[in-house]
Design a protein that fits this description.
Layout lengths: L1 E7 L6 E9 L2 E2 L4 E2 L8 E2 L1 H30 L17 H33 L4 H5 L1 H12 L7 H14 L16 H17 L5 H6 L15 H18 L6 H8 L37 H13 L2 E3 L5 E3 L2 H14 L2 E2 H8 L6 E2 L8 E2 L3 H10 L1 H6 L2 H13 L3 H10 L5 H9 L11 H11 L5 H9 L14 H4 L6 H21 L5 E3 L3 H4 L2 H28 L8 H12 L13 H5 L5 E5 L3 H4 L7 E5 H8 L4 H5 L3 H12 L6 H9 L5 H9 L4 H11 L6 H4 E3 L5 H7 L20 H10 L3 H17 L15 H10 L4 E2 L19 E2 L5 E8 L14 H13 L8 E3 L5 E3 L2 E6 L4 E3 L6 E3 L4 E10 L5 E9 H9 L14 E6 L4 E5 L5 E14 L2 E10 L6 H6 L4 E4 H6 L3 E5 L5 E3 L3
Parallel strand pairs: 3-15, 11-14
Antiparallel strand pairs: 1-2, 4-5, 6-7, 6-9, 8-10, 12-13, 16-17, 17-20, 18-19, 21-22, 23-24, 23-25, 26-27, 26-30, 27-28, 28-29, 30-31
């Protein structure tokens, strides 16, 4: 950020900057995880939510198994359990976990007894040795298969039923998402394949099929099975065994086992809880929730919004709106068939291939249609869908959105909507867009009638809702949540909250600014989808530039390393098929790159008018033609009067290669290129996030917000930075922007503050002068904004202290996820723990850490042989079987902490540290020294749960509390030159020496923006124990949002 002093000559004239008041940088993380640039960010709550859902699922399964066992136990179908002793945790969950352990032990004993019994029985029936040996693993499947034909003992029936409850199969819930590694099509496909195998082998049930398999040759577990398979098997087993045990297997018991909403046993699955309360509020109707994107009103709103903004570009380059007849024709097609490619849309309108839509070449690849209706038309047919009333169509969509079970929707399709079974199946599997729009149903119904008349969305919104900006100006920015409750983007939310801190601090110290100019970073301006597309284009462009360099060197081996401009020239020549688009002359490599080049890069729309130096505004032109004919004109201005030549040029441009061809054709066909239009585009960013930031800052000015707040696009900022030599302030005098120092953001802010219409006009005039004079330099000498400008900026930037957002909240993972063994002793008596690791994750360095010497030797042999045909090492048993070794126990010399109590206790590493408390004590000679207590995130949470302060000023060993340090906080230290330096704490850790742990602090310079790896490489990453920090007169300070240094009041 920066604050400029400005003067105004006459009323209503632009402000003129006359000096630099202050500048600074506020640094904060985005508040999300993942790669933002690539559009792969996700909320930090995702991981916690997934873990919570997993815990909840595990707990519900434990409850269900407890209920099933209790039912079978009371019926005499399973052994009784001894009641567990009262849990020391004094809660039902602890008792349930004790029961679970007891239940497991009872079932293991029962399985062992049943295996012995059935081993003798199968031996008498002539079973082979493999079958008898595997019976310990296959006894439940044997019981399930035999239950179809013969009488089983009560415990055998109970074990078979309980085994069904343990598995129970996959039930598709239309509303619940699958896990990351699951695909609904694959799941259903695997289930269908399994069903085919069951039928091919003549098996009547899933259990009977599995009982026939050899588990050492074909896996039984980890297959996709369907809930219906288990339900049918349960019914068949019950029907046979009820004849033998009529007094036990009653109808009442059957109902109990199947389960109900109140007592979900084997098969009952609870419906998903309503999440309506989490749906955001409408931007226009504040008391209404947002509407689902799948409803017809929103589908039409989005479709009509795009149609109203669609323009047709004629072969002659004229930009026109669609006629009412064209619009209705296209609307009718989109409303039934959904999205249309540009080619199909032209065909519907009867336009030639030489016509283009204004969307072509951009992010949009098609004209968006009614996607919901298109999917339903495939099921109901066009005539049937058209025959439904609007109310019936909406009811059909509500059925799809609200009904959770596929079989329920299947029956609804047949009974309510008259579908045949095949169509009803498609209906039951139909998935509509699950997201929500920005607007409520009420708002959509108000806007649609106006938009259907061809009125653009913003105009329709203004007619219905008027000017929504606050009439009264605020003295300072209010909390974001109070004025933008509809905001759900965590990145934009965090940014606006930090913006508020800086702006309000500026207002408190300097007063309300007369004018605010802002520019949003690309990551904020664009949606995640757009960022993905941008990153893909960047990667594609990188590959194209590499290919261009290879092409240059292949044709001209002695050329040297191709520069960026050379690569761009090659790509432009390749795009226009190595033919000058203006003259038609063929372009050779030597004519392009030789000692006397005959072709050069030129701007399609003159740079002085567009200030656009991008690839999209460039092409190749013969040098003589560019200087004598094209000059400082647009293509139409230079050639449009000669119809024959103009059509030849357009024909050549239409044959351009690559995705930019259509966009360049538009630029060639522009008839009137006014500087004012391009300047307005540069000074006004109309993207959603930019408009939101403008709206928020506009609260300071009420109805006059448009006069006081501007959001620029950033295209001119680079030119201002370059021409005023601002890049040299933080660099080594070079022209490149230096991103390794947080203060570069303040340099950007100064350039943004200067991006006024007057400065843009000055750049344009300078560029036009150079074009007319044939000078290579873009702008020439630009006048400094005020005398002494560069020196003022240099001094201000050098004195900036970056202000960092610090979070002291107790959140995030409290410990690492891995569970370790209890602490053991190795052969030398050292404390160690054991952990299981996949064998493929090991290397030869880990061999010595494998606990079991026999396993260690097998793994060593496997690694030395490097046999590709053996994916795992094997261990041979006494009877000759080969057991694959997939995981091994590894010895580690960590000291985990024990959490939980009784049978729930487990050993984990503490993970991240929350803060470090620093105390001053005296040694035996009475000299002061510093000691510290490192508090882990787990310990901090324990203190918080107990209602105690997370930070403690006292400790058992005594000492004077000095201050605490958290990650991100700032310390001040003595420098070698006698000055004091500011540093940011990056990591809090501890050094373990002879069993004693000493806290240490890792820190970097406060303005250092480099990654840790780069700082380490430069040997500027500092890590010190507390005593060396004391000797450097370390003290903790805080930095205000404006960069003011204040002593911390710990």
């Amino acid at each position: 950020w920066t604050l400029l002093a400005a003067r105004q000559g006459k009323p209503d004239t632009p402000l003129r900057p006359v000096g630099l008041v202050a500048a600074g940088t506020r640094v904060f993380d985005a508040g999300v995880e993942g790669d933002i640039e690539k559009g792969r960010e996700k909320s930090r709550a995702v991981q916690r939510r997934e873990a919570r859902l997993a815990r909840r699922g595990t707990d519900r399964r434990a409850r269900r198994m407890h209920l099933v066992y209790s039912i079978l136990e009371r019926a005499g179908l399973l052994p009784s359990l001894d009641p567990p002793s009262n849990s020391s945790e004094g809660n039902s969950r602890g008792i349930r976990e004790q029961e679970s352990q007891l239940r497991h032990e009872t079932l293991v004993t029962l399985d062992r007894e049943l295996a012995e019994k059935w081993r003798e029985k199968l031996r008498s029936e002539g079973a082979d040795k493999d079958k008898l040996r595997q019976i310990n693993h296959t006894i439940p499947y044997i019981l399930r298969a035999r239950a179809l034909d013969e009488k089983l003992e009560p415990y055998e029936v109970g074990r078979a039923i309980y085994h069904l409850a343990q598995r129970r199969g996959f039930l598709s819930n239309r509303k619940s998402p699958l896990k990351k590694d699951e695909d609904l099509g694959k799941v259903k496909g695997d289930i269908n394949k399994l069903q085919e195998k069951i039928e091919e082998t003549g098996s009547r049930t899933l259990g009977e099929y599995f009982s026939k398999l050899d588990p050492e040759e074909e896996r039984i577990r980890q297959r996709w099975t369907g809930r219906k398979m288990y339900e049918e098997e349960f019914g068949k087993i019950w029907a046979v065994q009820q004849k033998h045990h009529p007094n036990i297997l009653t109808e009442d018991l059957k109902k109990q086992l199947i389960g109900s909403k109140r007592h979900p046993a084997i098969f009952y699955q609870r419906p998903l809880k309503s999440q309506k309360h989490l749906i955001g509020k409408c931007e226009l109707e504040k008391d209404r929730r947002r509407a689902p994107m799948a409803i017809l009103d929103f589908q039409r709103f989005r479709m009509i919004q795009m149609l109203n903004d669609t323009r047709v570009i004629t072969p002659m380059g004229e930009l026109r709106e669609m006629t009412a007849e064209e619009r209705e024709k296209l609307l009718a097609e989109l409303d039934i068939k959904g999205d249309l490619t540009f080619a199909k849309a032209k065909k519907v309108l009867g336009l030639s291939r030489e016509h283009h839509f204004n969307w072509e070449g951009g992010i949009e690849k098609r004209i968006i249609g009614n996607r919901t209706a298109a999917k339903l038309v495939e099921i109901f047919g066009i005539e049937r869908w058209k025959g439904f009333s609007e109310e019936e169509r909406n009811r059909i969509i509500e059925d799809v959105l609200s009904i959770q079970k596929e079989d329920t929707l299947f029956r609804r399709g047949i009974n309510a909507w008259g579908l045949d079974e095949e169509s009803a199946k498609k209906f039951s599997e139909l998935q509509l867009k699950p997201d929500y729009a920005r607007f409520s149903r009420r708002a959509l119904k108000k806007l649609l009638p106006l938009m259907q008349q061809g009125i653009p969305y913003k105009t329709a919104e203004k007619q219905v809702y008027g000017d929504r900006l606050a009439a009264d100006a605020h003295a300072s920015l209010p909390a974001v949540a109070d004025v933008l409750p509809e905001l759900r983007n965590p990145i934009v939310n965090r940014t606006l909250n930090e913006l508020r801190k800086v702006v309000n601090a500026v207002i408190r110290k300097y007063g309300k600014p007369a004018l605010i100019r802002i520019e949003l970073a690309r990551d904020l301006r664009n949606s995640a989808k757009q960022r993905k597309n941008i990153m893909k284009k960047i990667e594609d462009n990188r590959k194209a530039r590499e290919k261009a360099a290879e092409g240059i060197l292949k044709e001209m081996p002695h050329f040297g390393e191709p520069k960026r401009a050379d690569r761009e020239k090659w790509l432009l020549a390749d795009e226009c098929n190595w033919e000058c688009p203006y003259t038609g002359r063929q372009i050779s490599v030597s004519a392009l790159f030789g000692e006397n080049p005959q072709f050069d890069v030129e701007h399609i729309i003159p740079f002085s008018r567009s200030l656009d130096d991008s690839f999209l505004n460039k092409t190749i032109c013969e040098i003589a033609e560019n200087r004598n004919v094209k000059r400082n004109y647009t293509p139409y201005e230079a050639y449009g009067r000669d119809e024959e030549k103009w059509n030849q040029i357009l024909h050549r441009v239409k044959n351009f290669r690559g995705r930019a061809g259509n966009l360049k054709l538009e630029r060639f066909q522009v008839k009137e290129a006014k500087f004012e239009d391009f300047a307005s585009q540069q000074l006004n960013d109309t993207r959603y996030a930019s408009k939101l930031a403008k709206k928020y800052l506009g609260l300071l000015y009420g109805k006059d917000a448009a006069k006081h707040v501007q959001a620029g696009r950033g295209g001119v900022t680079k030119f201002i930075r370059d021409e005023l030599c601002l890049n040299a302030i933080l660099g080594d005098g070079g022209d490149e922007k230096k991103r390794t120092d947080h203060r570069h953001h303040a340099v950007d802010a100064i350039a943004i503050a200067l991006t006024s219409p007057g400065v843009v006009k000055m750049l344009s005039d300078a560029a036009r002068y150079n074009e007319e004079k044939g000078l290579r330099r873009r702008f020439g000498n630009i006048k400094s904004p005020w005398p002494g400008f560069f020196e003022d900026v240099r001094k201000a930037v050098e004195n900036i202290v970056a202000s960092h957002r610090v979070s002291r909240r107790v959140n995030g993972p409290l410990h690492e996820e891995t569970n370790y063994s209890p602490i053991k002793k190795d052969e030398n008596g050292r404390d160690c723990v054991h952990i299981r690791k996949p064998v493929e994750s090991l290397d030869k360095k880990n061999l010595k850490d494998i606990v079991d010497p026999v396993v260690r030797e097998r793994v060593r042999e496997w690694m030395e042989q490097a046999n590709e045909h053996r994916p795992y090492p094997v261990h041979k048993t006494k009877d000759g079987r080969e057991i694959p070794i997939k995981k091994v126990r590894i010895r580690k010399y960590d000291k985990p902490m024990t959490i939980g109590r009784d049978h729930r206790s487990r050993n984990v590493l503490s993970g991240s540290n929350h803060h470090l408390d620093i105390f001053e004590v005296t040694d035996k000679k009475g000299r002061p020294k510093w000691e510290g207590r490192l508090v882990s995130a787990f310990e901090a949470m324990q203190l918080k749960r107990q209602g105690k302060s997370v930070y403690s000023r006292e400790r058992k060993e005594g000492g004077k509390f000095l201050f605490s340090l958290s990650q991100g906080e700032i310390i001040e230290l003595d420098e070698k030159d006698g000055n004091r330096g500011l540093y940011r704490v990056r990591i809090l850790s501890q050094l373990n020496q002879r069993g004693i742990k000493y806290p240490r602090v890792s820190y970097v310079r406060i303005n250092d923006a480099r990654l840790k790896a780069d700082i380490l490489k430069a040997k500027e990453w500092n890590t010190k124990l507390l005593e060396p920090l004391r000797k450097l007169n370390c003290r903790k300070v805080t930095i205000t949002p404006l960069g003011e240094v204040r002593r911390a009041n710990d």
